[in-house]
Amino acid sequence: MTGRGLYEREELTERARLALDSLCEGFKAGGTDLGSLLLYRGEAGLGKTALLAELRQSVVGRTPACTVLSARGGEQQRNVPFHVVRQLLQPALAKLSEPQRRELFESWYDVAAPALGMVAPSHGMQSDPQGVRDALDWVMARFSVRHGPLVVLVDDLHWADLESLTWLTAFSARVPSLPLLAAMAFRPEEMPVEGEQLAVAAAGAGNLMQVNSIGPEAVASLVRQEFGEDADDLFCHQCWSITGGVPYDLVTLFGKLRDRQLKAVDENVPALLELVAAGRGPAIARRLEKFGPDTYRFAYAAAVLDNEIDPAVAARVAGLSPAVARSAIELLREERILTTGAHGGVLEFVHPTIGTAVYQSMLSKGMRTAMHGKAAQEIIDGGRSMAEASRHLLETYPDDIPEVVDQLRQAAREHLGVGAPEAARRCLERALQEPPPEDQRAEVLLELGCSTLLSAPDITVNHLRAALAAVPGLDADHRELATLRLGQALAHGQRGVEAAEVTGAEIDRTPPGPGRTRLQAAHFMWRAFLREESDAFDRFQRLADLDDSLTGEDSGSRAVRVLRAWDFTLRGESSSQAVAFAEYAFDNGRLAEGIGWTNTTWGFEIPALLGLSYIYNDRLDRALDLFNEAASEFEVSGWSGGHLAFANFLQGFVLFRWGRLQEAETFLRLTLRKSDRLGRGGPLQWDTVGVLCDTLLARGRDEEAVALAQEYSFGPPYPPVMVFPDAPTLYGRLLLAQGRREEAAEHLARAGEQLTARGWHNTAWAPWAGHLAQAVFAEDPDRARALTDQALDRARVIGTSSAIGTALRWCASVAELPEAVELLAQAVAHLGQSPTAYEYTLALVDQGSALRRIGRPRDAMEVLERGVELAVQCGADGQLARARAELVAAGASPHRLRAVVAKVLNQEEHRAALLAARGLPARRIAEEMGITESAASWLLASVHRKVGAGPEGLSAVLGVDEE
């Protein structure tokens, strides 16, 4: 693959050739996992661009034909969001019809299309940056599968815009699983930290390749290739010595030698140093001055535009007539400063270092900013987006021009619409420097704060506080918005106390009306999330008084009633009353306006509390519908960062309460990975780790739950806001799982005291009493019974079947055996009417065990069989093994055991199990059943999981004799 002029690059080009061969041959054979990432690193001028060009050329004539996408970072375009991504995908997508693009994008169209510059963002739209990255992942992955094999080339990666670089870095993890070869080049000394992980990924695969200068022998060969075999040795050596073996300097030197018609002889050695220097930055600037003002003005305008330079636009920016511009272009081409770009009709600098040198040579900052101002006006007059013009506006001098402030604010809105909050922030900060008119300054500060709400809550806080303190201040509507957004930012930054204080302070200065009600609702909402509150009972009464004073059905009134539903739930009050309050959130069966998941008033907290209220009041169907709706809305809105992760957590949480433990674990592990990406120790991670630990304990994987808690430091000290489930209660249960009863008892008792002092008596959210009873029963049975009796009393107040049934099971666990049997019968009756399948499973197995121990094996087996079936449905492997052991202890006959297993296993699984019980290996089972060995292995894995026994115990479970 080595081409003419690529000296000492054999290893690098061979690596690329092998990667390309593997991609094409694997794609032809229908293979998967074909992708690879090649990264070329080296200083300027070492030939990285030539390596990419060589790879591009080697694609020609391949079978199957490869689709090539290419882009190049621009030093002056690093402030243009998704500039590199758009270069990659826009030309390819432009070849598709609108229906084809929509079909390719599927549900991601409204998120990806604005980021790719295909459509303008919707008015008022603010896309989550993570959501946009996920959308681009989807588009690139689908495109590579449909139009692959794909070769993606990115030059000057170090100058890629932040948004593109962040996406490319994240997307690199998916490359190996796609029919895609990505090759990129960068200068290590200029690579931003956001791109460092790319180098790590390439290095891990052995594909981070250093591009070095070439040696004296290669330079001598090049000289003789260009100037004849009789070139003098000293001349050749000096060419290497002066250029350092840098290919760009060599090519420039050879061009100058040809221009001057100098021969490669020793007498011309003194001229070499001057000729090399003439091709470098400072010399280029001096050369430009010699060409006259028209030529250097055109060169400066070209440097401002950076790459893909439209000659007509450059001429207008330079203030030149078309004829004068054409003359300047010809001269700059002759001097090897400009050349025709890859796309006809546009210009580019022969090498990026020339463009940098020209730009930096503009000693007059006034000239530079004036040209940027003209370039911005050209874009605006041409009807292109304000976001595109903003990169030039950012480089202009502040000059107290209100129109510029308006333009920058519009650009910021467009940047937010495509998921580029950093770009929006730069525009708004520059707008403040202009500065804006006094009556607009507070609004700009508000917009600046809102621009970072989805990505940087701490920065948001500072700007919103400034907006609220500005004089002259915000109008009433904007002030309410700023306060509510400030509360969200504080709460999301684990500063819930401040969130409550901020919203509370604003209530007094707001006149009665819907705005005041919304602020009151927000204040009570943030107070409700706090773990510790000195006046909890007073707050409960104040919330009730506020509700009594409301007569309308505006969003504030509905939010207050959702908060009352949650308050009733946490306090362990009547479930029917809590659900009645919750129903006020709906209008004709749908969440009312202003209460939805993507509303801009209070964020997702109100509908989240609504769903949680349903969870703890045995309305899991309503809760799951709500959380599925949340995930759908967040995806459609492109909020697939923290928002979608929180929706996934809620989905996992309700599935856990439902007893669908395997599904719950899937959702929760997905959320945990997302929370890792968002940063350790946040509220979402605490919630996710807590429910996942609870799920693992329910599945009988105690050691794994303990290890997970230790990995994420789940334990004291706890966050100041509540965790779902209650963190101290769960930590006490984890201590119990480790056999640390005394520590567990102390911890659970303290948790109970704190919750009781707050008035939170819900036995489902914080089941501390039941676990504490287990911890102290051996040493103090009377205390254990008092605890469970108290829990039962509180459960009866709540009135749900799950709360009463679970409390009855606790009572049975510390009661004498005859009484326990009766209590468990009641527990089973209640839990059989609840949707909490796992709790029902526990009660059934407990009841079967108790019946066996009082000498009623026939009744025990009937109950245990139901427990086995339900444990399988739940994925409660620990309870499945326990129920099976109890069946054996109750004397279940082999026939009875087979009947139980038959209910658990499907027909294929049952047949595979019988064959395995006879000692047949997976290969023989596959032959007997006429399936593949892999399919037989999957069947056996399902059998072992469902019956709770390995190969050695399978015969006993099935009640058959081994052959």
UniProtKB/TrEMBL annotation:
Report the domain of life of the source organism: Bacteria
Q: What is this protein called?
A: AAA family ATPase
Which UniProt keywords are given for this protein, alphabetically ordered? ATP-binding, Nucleotide-binding
The segment(s) forming the Orc1-like AAA ATPase domain are 6-181
Q: Which Pfam families match?
A: AAA_16 (PF13191)
Which species does this protein come from?
Streptacidiphilus cavernicola
**InterPro entries under this entry?**
AAA_16, Sig_transdc_resp-reg_C-effctor, TPR-like_helical_dom_sf
